[in-house]
Design brief:
16 helices; binds inosine 5'-triphosphate; six-stranded parallel beta sheet; Rossmann fold; Maf protein; alpha/beta; Multifunctional fusion protein; binds magnesium ion; six-stranded mixed beta sheet; 471 residues
Amino acid sequence: MDNRPIGFLDSGVGGLTVVKELLRQLPNEEVIYIGDSKRAPYGSRNKDEILAFTWEMVNFLLSKNVKMIVMACNTATAVALEDVKEKLDIPVLGVIQAGASAVVQKTRSKQVAVIATEATVKSSAYKDIIHRKSPSVELTSLACPKFVPLVEANMMAMPEAKAVVKESLAPLKGKVDSLILGCTHYPLLKPLIQEEMGPEVQLIDSGAETVRDISVLSNYFLISGSEREAIQHRFYTTGDPATFKAIAGQWLNIDDIKVEEVDLSQSQPKTKTLIVATRNQGKAREFEALFSDRGYSIKTLNDYPELPEIEETADSFEGNARLKAETIAEITGELVVGDDSGLCVDVLGGLPGVWSHRFAGPDPTDEQNMSKLLHELASTALIPERRTAHFHTTLVASMPGKESLVIDADWPGRIATAPKGEDGFGYDPIFLVGNGDLTAAELPFEEKNEQSHRGQALRKLMVELPSWLDK
Ligand SMILES: O=P(O)(O)OP(=O)(O)OP(=O)(O)OC[C@H]1O[C@@H](n2cnc3c(O)ncnc32)[C@H](O)[C@@H]1O
Ligand SMILES: [Mg+2]
């Protein structure tokens, strides 16, 4: 018997899907978990980086006196398993072997697929093992680089997740009888993946399959834990402990889960700069909330007083957003995101639209803009059905020498007959959300962010950005 903990490592929260299975199958084992959310996703990084980061996590786990290490990350397994195994004298397990073995046993049609990160697909680790075991099995490998950012941002229940899963899995529909979830993050999207692939396709969870191997290995080396009272699992993250706790608490069903933030590398991880092309600090704060835990340092034009003022002279949201993002990216050489947004009222043919900010004159107050709009609608749109509108936003991410990434989002509603509510800004007090009776200025800050055009666009950006940067 050996009651030392088992160490789990992952690029973020994905390895929790393996831990969940461990807690179910082997309740006498204690867990030490390290997730490198700050540097996730690993899947689009190069081999040397993945190897270095994995070793940092291995050394962290060794400092906690673990009896075994489980690389609960397919990307780390594909790149670093052999190296780590060779150099340590405790057992080290990856997640690829077990998933590959399971699919060979379970497929009937011999048409199977694996979805994984780009690095795992590139490594051909699944292909190699499956072909060695059964040359007649035909494996299709598909990289789904948008899945990990989606899970890391805890967006699994949001409508964007369904859309991303549908779009990503389209090439596999109707072609296979078994699908390996070749990234430990993916079981968190399992209901959506199953719905998209159809009930007849069996999903193989590599992580869950791995727990059987942990059990076999512990028995073989006589290091299983014994039944005891005080088992204290410990979780560490390099990212935001609150997000980690939210995902882990829900997924593992543990109420008082202990999560600590750690700084893994001696030399700080390279923080990437993201310039938001605005002087509006409110917008910068929204970016900061989402991106600083992903290893970005957020700057605005206020940090670069020497940069020119950029006039919004285009006649479309995209035109203005490009003008801001591309001009600043060209001058600074950095990653820049620009956005342009506004309120589009149907009966006014989409006005005030791109002119929302200056609707009532060159430098109007929000009140002046709102009263002009109410005045315009007073004569033409008396009934609520004629007062439909939507907020629109277009985000453009730009880097010199790269085709820009463009993201749009809408937030539908209607125009009220009088302002209502204290929160928000701009036209919020006269924007009735959806078909309801509350204006955007009556929603609490978090709720507005969850629904709004800007909130939706920022979350889409968070999912699209890593794979765009990698192109
Ligand atoms: O271009 P920057 O410097 O970022 O600042 P801006 O005020 O022009 O910012 P936008 O182009 O994004 O927005 C234009 C106007 O649209 C309105 N607007 C945009 N989003 C809104 C929201 O969430 N709630 C209420 N009004 C909004 C508001 O009147 C804004 O001044
Ligand atoms: Mg504007």
